[in-house]
């Protein structure tokens, strides 16, 4: 079954066609990064206007690249939340319009669930499909969630961030160090030339699977304010080390405690090389991580998740609406 996925929750307008939940036939992304970079962050009103301009060409490109005809599709999957209301509305209304015009079923996908399903987008003769039960760490610009999945569509949240999300912390640290936007890739790049010599705190929040990153961010800010940071590269490397240390240690602890068969990594921060290698090295449990381009926002992951939703009979009606604060569980 071929699914058209549509993603407009934040600053990427994306469309993709995925077959049977794992085979990517096309994956088109129109990034707005350069537009928002001049403001140092995402401007919601600008984002939704840009989605309106990009959505039709991006869907047409995805259908053309996939050599798909509307009649080939089994359904449309669209991100319904969490995200920016005005941005989400563009994708959801487009999905409903096409569904109505072409007589196709539509399903609303939770963006975070989509990130998890990026792990199913592989050639299973090369890389195995995820095995349940599993623990997934979702680390994006707005979330740092640790969840247990026992079967498709079933999530128990073990912990989440109490303040800044991991990606948000990277973005703020990059701003403090004057490294630009988006911060995650900027910190990672600067860290390559640095040493982890700065002492930065880790909030362990022992006995919980929650995270907190505002302490390490504030500690970095104080060092900069006191003029104690002579090398931005060392600061970037030390900051990345502190955040990754916490993420890896708490994820491995949760996975071990819950005796799962697999650890999945998901979300934009999962494209960070230090996080990827450290988790694989430290985990006694097999780890799966999507390729970097599937960690950051894309529509293939939404189509993959949509496939499993349709299989479970979870189609929505044309009254499908956006839920900007949608939770995973
Ligand atoms: O999942 P995503 O693309 O969008 C959201 O759903 O939020 O994640 C974006 C976040 C941003 O905060 C960005 O700075 C961070 O992921 N990010 C990274 C890297 N690439 C993106 N953080 C650390 N290292 C990276 N290489
Ligand atoms: Zn995302």
Protein architecture, described:
There is one protein chain. This protein has 329 residues and is an alpha/beta fold. It folds into 2 domains: 2-118 and 294-311, ATPase, nucleotide binding domain (Nucleotidyltransferase, domain 5, 2-Layer Sandwich), CATH 3.30.420.40; 124-289, Nucleotidyltransferase, domain 5, CATH 3.30.420. It is built from 11 helices and 10 strands. The chain has a 5-stranded mixed sheet, sandwiched between helices. It has a 5-stranded mixed sheet with strand order 8-7-6-9-10, with helices on both faces. A hairpin with a 3-residue loop joins strand 2 (12-19) and strand 3 (23-31). Helix 4 crosses helix 11 and helix 5 runs parallel beside helix 7. The protein is globular, with a radius of gyration of 20 Å. 5'-O-[(R)-(carboxyoxy)(hydroxy)phosphoryl]adenosine (KG4) is lined by residues 10, 140-142, 167-168, 170-171, 182-185, 188, 267-269, 271-272, 296-297.
